[in-house]
């Protein structure tokens, strides 16, 4: 049996809702000991965490400007995630400076453009792995430099290696 994914560790508390903290803590502890978590449970937890972050930010996600720089940059990333995307490219598409774009991303989404690109790529890699692609294939198709790059980012985002995620999905299909 492969070793369990380590539970995430944070230097300072990032969640101040005790009930949501307990839910997240229990989820990650189960995942670390039982392997790949149920995707529906993960989806529900992520939505609850995003809602909590949105509320803590004063509803910034709900106030995002539909035709603003973040929307333009996100649309670009969503279409061209498999290509090399530089911050300068996103700023040009958004018709703003790199600095303004980074601040707008943090205000509206709570993350930097680089983290958004990584999240979109991981989402596509997960889909490819679920369809049976190897981690090497998924890395190339999802826009990662190589399999090692996919592995680092994927594990950082999901807590699992791409191979373990693929195996868990294959186990669910049988």
Automatic annotation (TrEMBL):
Keywords, ordered alphabetically: DNA-binding, Transcription, Transcription regulation
Claim: Transcription is one of the keywords in the record: yes
InterPro entries: AraC_XylS_family_regulators (IPR050204), Homeodomain-like_sf (IPR009057), HTH_AraC (IPR018060)
A Pfam family annotated for this UniProt entry: HTH_18
PROSITE patterns: HTH_ARAC_FAMILY_2 (PS01124)
Taxonomic superkingdom: Bacteria
Domain HTH araC/xylS-type, chain residue ranges per copy: 71-168
One example GO MF annotation: sequence-specific DNA binding
Record protein name field: Helix-turn-helix domain-containing protein
Native organism: Gordonibacter urolithinfaciens
Lineage: Bacteria, Bacillati, Actinomycetota, Coriobacteriia, Eggerthellales
């Amino acid at each position: 049996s492969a070793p369990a994914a380590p539970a995430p560790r944070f230097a300072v508390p990032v969640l101040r809702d005790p009930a949501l903290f307990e839910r997240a803590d229990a989820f990650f502890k189960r995942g670390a000991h039982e392997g790949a978590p149920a995707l529906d449970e993960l989806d529900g937890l992520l939505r609850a965490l995003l809602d909590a972050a949105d509320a803590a930010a004063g509803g910034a996600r709900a106030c995002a400007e539909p035709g603003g720089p973040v929307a333009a940059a996100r649309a670009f990333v969503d279409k061209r995630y498999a290509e090399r995307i530089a911050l300068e490219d996103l700023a040009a598409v958004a018709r703003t400076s790199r600095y303004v774009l980074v601040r707008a991303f943090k205000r509206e989404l709570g993350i930097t453009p680089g983290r958004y690109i990584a999240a979109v790529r991981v989402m596509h890699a997960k889909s490819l792995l679920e369809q049976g692609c190897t981690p090497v294939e998924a890395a190339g198709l999802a826009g990662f430099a190589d399999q090692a790059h996919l592995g680092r980012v994927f594990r950082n985002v999901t807590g699992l290696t791409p191979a373990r995620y693929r195996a868990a999905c294959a186990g669910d299909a049988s």
